[in-house]
């Protein structure tokens, strides 16, 4: 599997978003983080996802309005 890491600003934004969603609806913050982890796990497989220039792979979360890019 391909490794990954979040840059500090992205990690902070993800944490703030999960806290916001959890405050709005109980369990929504956890669902948000679970969806992100699901997309990351899919992108980490070498055979899955579309590879773009600069060796990045892109995917969209099925229930979230976000796009994820993973540098290879």
List descriptors.
alpha+beta; elongated; single chain; 72 residues; 47% helix; 3-stranded antiparallel beta sheet; 2 helices
List the helices and strands and how they pair.
Blueprint: H1 8-24, H2 28-44, E1 50-52, E2 56-60, E3 67-71
Antiparallel strand pairs: 1-2, 2-3
Helix pairs in contact: 1-2
Number of strands: 3
> How would a textbook summarize the main sheet?
3 strands, antiparallel
* Overall 3D shape: elongated
**Share of residues in strands:** 15-25%
Mean pLDDT: 77
Query: Structural class given helices, strands, pairing?
Result: alpha+beta
Give the SSE string: HHEEE
What are the low-pLDDT stretches, counting only 5+ consecutive residues below 50? none
**Count of individual domains:** 1
DSSP helix count?
2
Kindly report the spatial arrangement of strands forming the biggest sheet: 1-2-3
Indicate the percent of residues in helices.
Answer: 40-55%
Radius of gyration: 13 Å
Distance N terminus to C terminus?
10 Å
Quick description:
The protein is 47% helix and 18% strand.
Characterization of this structure:
The chain has about 70 residues and is α+β, with helices and mostly antiparallel strands. The chain has one domain (about 10-70). It has helices at about 10-25, 30-45, and strands at about 50, 55-60, 65-70. It has a three-stranded antiparallel beta sheet, covered by helices on one side.
